[in-house]
């Protein structure tokens, strides 16, 4: 099994486009955001060319997250490619329940042999953000095909059921909206509770469930070195306000919190004890754990864990540490906003 970790988006896109160019049989792409910019056009044009060559091209874009719609891909569709929009807005009551469940997955599959999984969408915007994606070449790609086909075959229109697949020391999680099962949250909890020495986390949006919040605090209190990086400012300002509510308790338990100020940090992964990891599309928040279709890879692999750790510490060089005294003195108005907005934490 060959793998690469990408934390430089231009290099990531270059690799993805090269793999698409070399594809012989199939290209499956599932993404939350697909923008109508020069990056989107570059991918679309190459995918159209491959469809004309007879390659089986299938694309899933989320109808809310993506600017690109079916008309944007008309030449690709004429060439034999297939495009589906996940769950367009429906005027059906209750509106929230019928429209809030989104396809947040980010997968690229080539010839059932190569898979990309991580945080990056298809948009020029990503080239300015910190994203982390793993490319794996090997049998494991076939397992991600099953995750992709779940949405492609519209199994979400039936009673959605998560897909949990095992390959060697890896677990492939095709998460689905569920208040009850929450396999990605359970995997985060399992790995946090396994930790004996170190937990490294990067996430753009941090609105943890009570179980995850308590697990992180307990890990730090039992002597685990817990380091956590979040953007100084994300692209969702409301979540920037809410996350501050949790930082005091984490800090007092021994968790070290860092802000990433160079640009927006959008990466989503965790490394435990230099051997366990989880990476994918899920944020550490209620929305990812309960309301969205997500794709994640968890496993025990010291080489991948080591490379993710190196990427983490490279990002850490640019970070500013959380200031607890300053946090305690934050304005009353901010505290009120945090408390009020937390009422809606399950849906943001």
What is the 3D form?
A: globular
CATH superfamily of the largest domain: Endonuclease Chain A
- What is the strand content? 25-35%
Q: What is the β-strand count?
A: 19
Can you describe this structure?
The chain has 348 residues and is of the alpha/beta class. It has 2 domains: 161 residues, Endonuclease, Chain A (2-Layer Sandwich); 172 residues, Endonuclease, Chain A, CATH 3.30.870.10. It contains 12 helices and 19 strands. The strands form 3 sheets. Strands 5, 9, 10, 11, 13, 14, 15, 16, 18 and 19 form a 10-stranded mixed β-sheet that branches. It has a 7-stranded mixed β-sheet with strand order 1-8-7-6-2-3-4, with helices on both faces. Strands 12-17 form a two-stranded parallel sheet. Helix 6 packs parallel to helix 7, helix 7 runs parallel beside helix 8 and helix 8 packs across helix 12. The longest helix is centred in the C-terminal third of the chain and has 17 residues. It is globular, with a radius of gyration of 20 Å. It starts with a strand and ends in a 7-residue tail after the last helix. The relative contact order is 0.14. The model has no long low-confidence stretch (mean pLDDT 95).
TL;DR of this structure?
The protein is α/β, with parallel strands linked by helices and 348 residues long.
Key structural traits:
single chain; 348 residues; alpha/beta; Endonuclease, Chain A; 2 domains; 10-stranded mixed sheet; 7-stranded mixed sheet; 12 helices; 37% helix; 26% strand; globular
Helix-strand layout with pairing:
Layout: E1 2-6, H1 9-22, E2 26-31, H2 38-52, E3 56-62, H3 74-78, E4 82-86, H4 95-99, E5 102-103, E6 107-110, E7 114-118, E8 133-137, H5 140-152, E9 163-167, E10 170-175, H6 183-194, E11 198-202, E12 206-207, H7 210-221, E13 225-231, H8 237-253, E14 256-260, E15 269-272, E16 276-280, E17 284-285, H9 286-291, E18 292-300, H10 302-316, E19 320-321, H11 324-328, H12 332-341
Parallel strand pairs: 2-3, 3-4, 5-18, 11-13, 12-17, 13-14
Antiparallel strand pairs: 1-8, 2-6, 6-7, 7-8, 9-10, 10-18, 11-15, 14-19, 15-16, 16-18
Helix pairs in contact: 6-7, 7-8, 8-12
């Amino acid at each position: 099994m060959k793998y690469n970790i990408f934390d430089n988006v231009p290099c990531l896109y270059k690799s993805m486009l090269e793999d698409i160019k070399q594809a012989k049989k199939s290209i499956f792409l599932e993404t939350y955001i697909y923008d109508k910019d020069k990056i989107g056009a570059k991918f679309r044009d190459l995918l159209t060319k491959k469809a004309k060559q007879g390659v089986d091209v299938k694309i899933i874009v989320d109808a809310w997250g993506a600017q690109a719609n079916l008309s944007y891909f008309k030449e690709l569709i004429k060439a034999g490619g297939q495009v589906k929009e996940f769950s367009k807005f429906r005027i059906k009551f209750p509106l929230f329940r019928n429209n809030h469940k989104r396809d947040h997955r980010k997968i690229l599959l080539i010839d059932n042999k190569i898979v990309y999984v991580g945080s990056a969408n298809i948009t020029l915007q990503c080239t300015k953000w910190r994203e982390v994606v793993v490319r794996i070449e090997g049998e494991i790609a076939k397992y991600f095909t099953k995750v992709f086909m779940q949405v492609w075959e519209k199994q979400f229109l039936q009673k959605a059921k998560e897909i949990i697949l095992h390959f060697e020391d890896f677990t492939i999680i095709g998460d689905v909206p569920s208040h009850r099962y929450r396999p990605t949250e359970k995997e985060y909890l399992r790995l946090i509770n396994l930790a004996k020495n170190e937990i490294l986390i990067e996430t753009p949006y941090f609105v943890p469930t009570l179980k995850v919040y308590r697990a992180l605090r307990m890990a730090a209190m039992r002597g685990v070195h817990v380091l956590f990086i979040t953007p100084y400012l994300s692209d969702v300002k409301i979540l920037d306000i809410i996350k501050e509510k949790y930082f005091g308790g984490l800090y007092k338990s021994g968790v070290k919190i860092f802000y990433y100020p160079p640009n927006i940090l959008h990466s989503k992964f965790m490394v435990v004890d230099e051997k366990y990891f989880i990476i994918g599309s899920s944020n550490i928040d209620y929305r990812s754990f309960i309301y969205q279709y997500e794709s994640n890879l968890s496993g025990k692999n010291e080489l991948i864990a080591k490379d993710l750790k190196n990427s983490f510490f490279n990002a850490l060089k640019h970070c500013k540490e959380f200031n607890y005294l300053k946090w305690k003195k934050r304005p009353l108005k901010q505290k009120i906003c945090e408390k009020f907005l937390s009422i809606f934490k399950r849906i943001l």
